[in-house]
Amino acid sequence: GTHWILKKTVVLVGMMGAGKTAVGKALAARLSVPFLDSDAEIEKAANMTISEIFQRDGEAFFRARESEVIERLLDTQRGILSTGGGAFLSERNRQMMSDKGVSVWLNADLSLLWSRVKGKNTRPLLRTAHPYETLRKIYETRAPVYALADLNVAADPGYSIDDMAAEVEAAL
Ligand code: S3P
What we know:
alpha/beta; Rossmann fold; five-stranded parallel sheet; 8 helices; EC 2.7.1.71; amino-acid biosynthesis
């Protein structure tokens, strides 16, 4: 297969439903490098789901664990790192990600995001009376921040997960 040596971890950022996990796995497979996932690491360490952590300990607690996990992964491993949708909002996290890695915004449009997240109850932030409106507001607030990523890759709705992975690979 391929023999990629990553100089820096590739950090995928962007909204819930953008495909960070799926594209991250596909990209890691294409490059034969490890796949890392901050949400999965947090769940493993706490032995709880993200929803349970939000419910029991609150969002601020979750964000603190998230920053620790991302820092640890960036310091100890190189690979493709998928992060939770809120991770890039902290300036300190952004700094870490761009110093120790290369950040890539998977920019999917709102209708694609909604089609991927609707009906699932794994996203505590969308547990509101009007989840579509909530998603739209989150997208609008966050888009200018995600745009600060080192690379921006548009997730065209016609693309497959592997097309997206190829797109990111080409941008590296
Ligand atoms: C969040 C996104 C989730 C998870 C948590 C908060 C967010 O990850 O970290 O529910 O703030 O956008 P995904 O982006 O993988 O859904």
